[in-house]
Design brief:
The chain is an alpha+beta fold. The protein is built from 5 helices and 4 strands; from the N terminus they run ααααββββα.
């Protein structure tokens, strides 16, 4: 599945920002194409049509209100980025934080997985969210 936006010269941060735009625009095919081939997510959704059915039911009702990308750090696998999504779902405003892992493939950076924190897990300002908040989270769940 080729998308002209997924170029080899995109930085990891640019890919995350494109994913946020795709989520806002409900471009679910782009989101699917931006996953790393070894992403645990693709084990759940091995074919785009299965994912699209899920996305229409579960993501289409979501209205993205804000997104931010914060600090990044290099890892043995690739790059981790601290991100924030604020969205409305079923009339409720929700905030989700993630430590996104992006890994390179021959054609550029791809989204592998993320460790999530809810607004209950972290109640501070996004600017103060640091890697240590994710590193000390127990249990660590990446998907």
């Amino acid at each position: 599945m080729n998308h002209p936006e997924l170029t080899v010269d995109l930085t990891a941060e640019e890919l995350v920002r494109l994913r946020f735009t795709a989520l806002k625009e409900q471009n679910f095919l782009f989101l699917y194409a931006s996953y790393h081939p070894r992403s645990p997510f693709l084990e759940l959704f091995p074919h785009a049509d299965i994912y699209l059915e899920f996305a229409v039911q579960n993501l289409a009702p979501m209205r993205l209100c804000a997104s931010e990308v914060g600090a990044s750090r290099a890892t043995a696998e690739g790059v981790e980025l601290i991100c924030m999504l604020r969205f409305e779902l079923d009339g409720k405003l929700q905030t989700m934080y993630e430590l996104a892992l992006l890994e390179p493939i021959e054609s550029g950076w791809r989204y592998h997985s993320a460790q999530k924190l809810s607004a209950e897990d972290y109640q501070g300002e996004f600017a103060a969210l640091e890697f240590i908040h994710f590193d000390h989270q127990s249990p660590k769940v990446r998907f």
